Amino acid sequence: MVTRADIGVIGGSGFYSLLDDAEEIQLATPYGPPSDVVTVGRIGSRSVAFIPRHGRDHRFPPHRIPYRANLWALRSLGVRQVLAPSAVGSLRAEYGPGAMVIPDQLVDRTSGRVQTYYDIDGAVHVSFADPYCPSGRAAAVRTARSGGWATVDGGTLVVIEGPRFSTRAESQWFAGNGWSIVGMTGFPEAILARELALCYTSLSLVTDHDAGVEAGQGVTHDEVLEFFAQNVTRMRTLVADTVQALPHERACSCGSALDGIKLPFELP
Ligand SMILES: [Zn+2]
């Protein structure tokens, strides 16, 4: 029997223990290998494929992650809905460490990352006005709230190139635009998911205040890692519960993102 999964999770290596009856699959894609072997297993009645975004040994910094291979690998396993937990900095004093933000908008401040599958044989223009899946977002918000998280429904995630953190001026500029949180991995992950007609939902855990926020002194890598480690178990529970809260049949428009568009190749 060919191994299949309905739901994909791209996250930190703390998520391995999520899966029952886990099987590891080495996958090749036209874009090279994904970040690591893909682990496929079950959470309750749902079949789930997990990819550690940075690799099991954390060898890929945000700007070197094989984003295209990761999403392609998930789709080729049958995945149609993706959950993307990650750590972010807060641009607002009122969203402190431990807040769970389920963003509904995104600003791309990355540079030099390949952000499309369709870079040969003509242009494919995919709508990205609303980058996240409304059904996935609703499931995540509901689940986080019932799990006792301080949950923010909506907001704008700014994705910076990294690996450095923001300057104080950059951070104040982002905040001044009304944007909510800053991360390094949410793009091009979100657009690549859309280009494959996948549902994509970001679960953004605030680990600290960004440099420009009044409460913040600026961020160190150690602080981020320490905070995230403290919250691994909580995050794992949230992701597992959200997986089970996702709809069995998609009623959102994510699956029709490519309708009427002539693709230069067939999707897996
Ligand atoms: Zn969707």
Automatic annotation (TrEMBL):
Summary of subunit composition and partner proteins: Homohexamer. Dimer of a homotrimer.
UniProt miscellaneous comment: Although this enzyme belongs to the family of MTA phosphorylases based on sequence homology, it lacks several conserved amino acids in the substrate binding pocket that confer specificity towards MTA.
A Pfam family hit: PNP_UDP_1
EC number: 2.4.2.1
Protein residues bound to phosphate: 13, 53-54, 86-87, 185
Catalytic activity: a purine D-ribonucleoside + phosphate = a purine nucleobase + alpha-D-ribose 1-phosphate
Enzyme type, top EC level: transferase
Upper classification of the organism: Bacteria, Bacillati, Actinomycetota, Actinomycetes, Streptosporangiales
Residue stretches making up the Nucleoside phosphorylase domain: 6-242
Cross-referenced InterPro entries: MTAP, Nucleoside_phosphorylase_d, Nucleoside_phosphorylase_sf, Purine_phosphorylase-2_CS
Family, as annotated: Belongs to the PNP/MTAP phosphorylase family. MTAP subfamily.
Keyword Cell division among UniProt keywords: no
PROSITE patterns: PNP_MTAP_2
UniProt-annotated site: Important for substrate specificity, residues: 166, 221
Binding site for substrate: 184, 208-210
Name of the featured protein: Purine nucleoside phosphorylase
Membrane among keywords: no
Function text: Purine nucleoside phosphorylase involved in purine salvage.
Organism: Nonomuraea rosea
Keyword annotations of the record: Glycosyltransferase, Purine salvage, Transferase
